[in-house]
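Minutes, project check-in
Item: structure for the 1109-residue chain
Input as provided by the requester:
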Amino acid sequence: MSTEGKSIAFATPASSGVTGTTLASSAQASAPAKKQDDAKSLNLTEHMLSIEEVAAKYSVAINEAKPADSQGLSAAEAAKRLAENGPNALSPPKKRHPFLRFLDILTGLFNIMLIVSGIAAYILLAIDYNDNIQNTYLGAILIGVAFMNAGIEFYQQQKSAAILESFLNLIPSQCYVIRDSQTQQINAKELVLGDVVVIRSGDKIPADVLVIGSTELKVDNSSLTGEADPQERSKKNSHNNPLEATNLAFNGTLAVVGNGYGIVVRTGDNTVIGQIASLTANEERRESPMTVEIEQFVKLIASVAGVVAIVFFIIALTAKGQSVSQALNFAIGTFVSFVPEGLPATVTMLLTIAAARMAKRQVLCKDLQGVETLGAITLLATDKTGTLTRNQMTVTYVWTGLKLYFAQNLAEGTDDAKICVPFEYKDSDATDELIHIATLNPTAKFTSNEGPIATREVLGDATEAGLVRFAASNLPTYDEAQNAFPKVFEIPFNSSNKWAMTIHKKKHANGSLVLYIKGAPERVLKLCSSIHDGQQAIPLTTEHNAKFEEMYTMFASKGHRVLAFAYLPLPGNEFSEDFEFSKDPVNYPTQNLTFLGLTSLEDPPKHGVREAVGKARAAGIRVMMVTGDHPLTAEAIGRKINIMLTDTKAEIAKKRGVPESEVPESEVNAIVIHGDSIDGLTDAHWDNIFDKEEIIFARTSPKHKLDIVKRAQAHGHIVGVTGDGVNDSPALKKADLGIAMNISGSDVSKEAAAMILIDDNFASTIAGIEEGRLIFQNLKKSIQYTITHTMPEVFANLFYIIVPLPLPLSSILILVVDLGFELFIALSYAYDVSENPAGLMKLLPRKPVTPMSVERLNRRRALDREERIARLGVEAGDLEEDPHSLSKWTKFSRGFAKLFTKRYWSETFEKTEDEILIDGDVLLYAYVEAGTIQTIGCLVCYFFAMWWHKQIYPADAVKNAAKWGVDPFVTSRNVTITAEDQTSALAFGQSAFYLALMIQQCFNHFVCKARLGYPIGSFMFKNIYSFLGILLGGGFSMVIVYAPPFNVAFLTEWHLTPYVWLIAALFGVFLYAYSFVRVAIKKRLAPVRYTDDIPGLQMFPTRWSTSGK
């Protein structure tokens, strides 16, 4: 569904266009105009008004000079506005009534076929009760199976929905407002336009507010914009774009430090977060690849079954002279034999078992189809902050005492190990002094001193929180330091100074006070005249300045945030221990400080992310970063975690010393695109982008993320999207598989996603992909096994008319095949292990995107366009038809009509690189090869049983089939067979046919376990449920045949000789031996394809994967 013309678009800060490419050159010209349009579309203009104008607009009394003394709204006025405008809450997504959802499932094509067949069986029963007595059971079973299939799927959907509800934030949030000149705590839902909100450090902003006063207020907008850095908020503003306005704080963002006051200007669905949620509500997810493939298979089977049933109904009625009742009964039997009734239940239950197994690997599936979709994705678009990274600033490099240190675990053999040494606070006087600055100068504090330092919550700015964790991890006396060296004076960080200063009581050789400063490197360096060399302070020289520039440039180029540190021991003869410092007039020194060094901080990747991304890429999946953060930061992180390994066009041009225009696109495999350029990209630009293996989109808005997903899908990709923020939710909803975070994820993102990472660990996604690939293999094995028995059932009915034969297998026995032993054995595939665990993630994606696939997709789109023009007119040619807007009948009728077109069959049998669930290889094996072998085996057992028990030879059966069970006849051996003997012989024959099918299927079960090689190896016997399934399925079949009470309902015969078992087993052994020949031929003609190795992948434990999540 297109988002054009909707009331929301989100702008991002201006910057460069596309890093490493010239794609955006044409787009950048239109970027300023586009940004203005984006700002207007937010319908948020209060940031451009004065505080007095906003107060007047919302009729609220405030005190701009002292916001705390504001009168605010009266309680009566607030109640009136609440009644008029409704609560400050997002409208819940529209949910279809459970009964209607059950009906949607029940009215699927497969279930409709079963219900119609069941109703037809009862109609026949009403016409001729005595001859159709078995239809009492047949009709009930067919209709019951339809309801069972729907019930199982519906139950799983309800169960997933209930689990999701438990993950959503159900605790009502509270906030502080000023009403009637009193500060009071209320439920955030009760906020109204014009309320004066009190914002404290650590509070979640309860609505969109205009800041009317603040003290060092900073907010974390990462869930909204993807921007990792906390943003300053005050009553001053110079930006037109509301998302960049410094006097607006948005609903759902977090006040990380400072405090303030604001007037509520938007509530509920009108907030920015609400408008993003509306984008999500207007998007629909495509049907999963497996759903499409099974639907196509069902249509094909239904069409073939229907045509065959009708043709043979006519033959039975005319050529064979049967009554309408008999012919229709035969037609139903033929139809039932073609349709694998247990397939939907098998698929649903296999996916359910796989979903339960994935939950143990910390992946919750809201939608069962998502289990398999995860294994099919070809492109994984992931957010950075909070998804790939920890959303926790961490000190990485420290340069002090003219020496470079590494502050994390230093892995041997890495580039860092060659230039750095591990940080030790006792390494020199400089390291000791720097760790004390990191301890004493920040205003951030732990909320608790319990638990591991890495997981403790810190109240304060993200950068200072990183310093606090660094200091606490390295200074043993951290907890006592604040009391040991009390603060006597402080100048907080501000935008004019760009540094923060504290003075502490800390004795030294010349006095009792020490001044500490941290801040912007260039500003701090200007305050210094000396530098610490590790032993003492020495004069600052040009060589020192050059080294400073070298380190600063190195840290900044990695996308790190860089802070400088300096100190000054205050002389006791000028500054006594009880000296009173003041800001006005200034009586503290700001010159001749000693420069201590630099630290760099980054938001590091989560544990295992690098290896997880590498594993995905090795599996042929493109991993693409889509973030709201700065391009340099995004690229720096991307290069650490295997997303980007090769040079961009800009880097190649720089190395060659040539302009970018002289670098051929064919030599470029990496690209970084700035969000400002996205709106102006042409189709050719998008094609060029998705031709690259390594892609990063930076400074993107929610609308951009949505557009990227749509473009990737249009390119033929099966797209997975991971994210945790509100800004990710539209893309999560539109993607083939949206994956949200449980712990850090917003409720909006969880609602939009189809899957949730319970532990927020990106590596769990890759574990899920592996599980998804395994379940696809197991589903394919199960379906191949399940449909193999179809041909013996079909031939049994066809031979009944064509040869003719006494009916070898009744409709009721067909059903107890499909819904009896077959279910037990087919379900056991869910627990199969991989044939080749190492090779599973080296297989190509089952629908790889290649130049051939893109060309094929474009050709089919052109044909779709021509068909739309023919159906709706020229003006409809360029309109994309929304499949979700079509009725079920329209979809069915169009789909059914396609079966009779040349295009459908040419596309169905067109050679592609895709591997589908039910492909030609599966159908060839099931319907032709194994199906034929099993049919012969079943017929041999059928004839043997009739001969063994009643001395009826095959020729006798064929000769007298037309009036079987009506009149006596004499066999070729001059034996008279009465009508009762004929009925008994048929019971023996049908029982033998039924048991032979079961026994051969037991052998086929092990044959189908091997998809990639020969059916031999330890993997064949690791699944204990295979043997349990055979035991239960075999026991079920034996009860049907050998338990006399069941002989009445199923017309079986408990006296059947066990010799039949031996004959069936011999055919099973033959089928098993044949499979080896088949695999040998396949290996020569169509070997299994694996992905090529990717040079440069870093797949070894690093500081990130060894230091926790």
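Outcome recorded: The two ends are 38 Å apart (CA to CA).
No further action items on this chain.
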